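Task card 7
Instruction: Convert sequence to structure tokens.
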Amino acid sequence: MLAGALLLGSCAGESGDAGGTAEVVIRSFRFQPDPLVVPAGTAVTFINEDATVHTVTAGTRDAPTGAFDHELAQGESVTITFAEAGDVDYFCTLHAGPGMEATIVVE
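Output:
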């Protein structure tokens, strides 16, 4: 697992070159896309489009890492930069299910 560094501000877009931006949308109780593949240094913005609160929490349900843990109400977003290569698992602490667990693959 990798620790993500929080980057304040908002970004939008697709994955791209190192230092680029990408988005994960939370919709219909799913993190989309899953997995998201990005180069190291990408700022990923998580956007909650559901009508309920969700969290974006590093690790797995059985083993949260503490690297990041953000609660997002409808319409809220948070941007996290993934600086180092590796797989970063994350999940929603409030809702169980296959759509509420996902991975960022940092290359």
